[in-house]
Amino acid sequence: MSTTTTETRAAGPTASGPPQRTGLLSRLRSSLQQMLAFVSLIVLFIFFTVANPDFASVSNISGILLATAVIGILALGTTFVIITGGIDLSIGTGMTLCSVMVGVFLTY
């Protein structure tokens, strides 16, 4: 009595097959997504500078940077909390506590 075995191979590219392009496309797509926010910021800056030449003044740029400093510091603190594994997204509560404490310290 003889038996025969049949081998089934999984469909798909093998090591000797053609190189896959999905790796290149996925890397290109992820780098495009990362650069999209920065490019959008540059486009908005150029648009508002052309619309109003006073937009690119030193006092306006420093005002914009000072206005975004608080949110940037809060985002940095929240990033460290998320990285360490503690998922606590209560930025509003922390900002309120800091505002109250600054108000209390300024009155004394």
Structure description:
- By secondary structure, the chain is mainly α.
- The protein folds into two domains: 21-55, no CATH class; 57-108, no CATH class.
- It contains three helices and no strands.
- The longest helix is centred in the middle third of the chain and has 30 residues, at 22-51.
- The protein is flat.
- The mean pLDDT is 78.
- It comes from Brevibacterium pityocampae.
- Keywords: Membrane, Transmembrane, Transmembrane helix.
- This is ABC transporter permease.
- Residues 1-22 are annotated as: Disordered.
Summarize the structure.
This protein is mainly alpha-helical. The protein has helices at residues 22-51, 58-83, 91-107.
**Largest pleated sheet:** none
Strand content: under 5%
Quote the average pLDDT.
Answer: 78
Number of domains: 2
| Beginning-to-end CA distance, first to last residue | 100 Å
From the spread of the alpha carbons, the general shape counts as flat
Tell me the number of helical segments per DSSP (H or I, 4 or more residues long): 3
SSE-based structural type: mainly alpha
What share of the residues lie within helices? 55-70%
Based on DSSP secondary structure assignment, what is the total number of beta strands? Answer: 0
What is the string of SSEs from the N terminus onward? Answer: HHH
Rg is 27 Å
Low-confidence stretches: none
